Amino acid sequence: MNNQIIGDCILAPMAGITGYPFRKIALKYGASFCFTEMVSAIGYVKNDKTTLELTYSGSYTANTGIQIFGSDPYIMGLAAKKAVQSGFKAIDINFGCPAKKVIKTGAGSAALKDLDKFKAIIAEVKNNIGNDNLLTIKLRSGFDENSKNYLESCKIAENEGVDSIFFHPRTRAQMFSGKADHSLTALLKKNIAIPVYATGDIFDIYSAKNIKESTAADGIMFARGAIGKPWIFQNFINFSEINSQLNNLDKLVELFEEMLTFYGEKRAANLIKPHLYNFLTGFDNAKIFRLEVNNARNYCDIINVFNNIKNI
Ligand SMILES: Cc1cc2nc3c(=O)[nH]c(=O)nc-3n(C[C@H](O)[C@H](O)[C@H](O)COP(=O)(O)O)c2cc1C
Description:
Non-ribosomal Peptide Synthetase Peptidyl Carrier Protein, Chain A, 2 domains, eight-stranded parallel β-barrel, 15 helices, 46% helix, 15% strand
């Protein structure tokens, strides 16, 4: 499958963040492609209501990939088949999740400890989606410091027909601590022929450029760097931050409105909070505004916060 459908400036999957409203806004403001957060393959196959909400993509299935996790190759294959039948063109397998509750089922980064299982999951998914759809994997450098097997695992993935790799150069044991070691990304890129995308500590357009160039990666993913700043994609493409943070605040109001429509008032008032938190980084009165964000319960409270920030 042609990798061009995903472009080179992608919104990373993030649990609790990359629901339909945020993906829609990120695509509007420059993301070349986006992914749903990780969803359980079994939940998806069984039409679990929450899972179906997480994967809802409206008319954006052509530029949205679904990310699935699970440890049973057969179920992963069924989920991938269903995703393709539902219109998704890209299926990503999560081999990176470090959470205990996922690991203990053998899914996420646990598969990095069992490369036979890793291979079997990829083979089954590939078998179910054929060559007309994109198969990607997202993984960490290894399970822990003593088992950094990313070169071996990615070689297996390449041989099994994976089209692209999203690489987060931290081990599972590191969780989100320390720094992402992108010298590993550069080494991976030299060792395999399929496209490699960098993820990890890409917080602004400068780190994005620096990591993309220094690793020769085919593209980058914005994750935490896009929370509260969905226009970061556009800024990266233009390589300019000419619009100040405050000038972009209306785009967060727009996100809030999308959330209201999709989730209803109470959930929207909570789900906008991490965005406002991040947006406020660097502002003089961030502490005071964040307290207001914390205390907000409904539509009016959130709109008040937006107005107060606008009047800085
Ligand atoms: C709140 C949150 C949720 C995440 N959920 C997922 C997920 O569902 N699937 C996944 O592959 N990675 C997930 N990640 C990892 C990100 O996609 C990304 O690879 C990681 O945050 C490193 O990039 P960054 O340092 O630029 O944020 C999550 C990260 C965060 C912060």
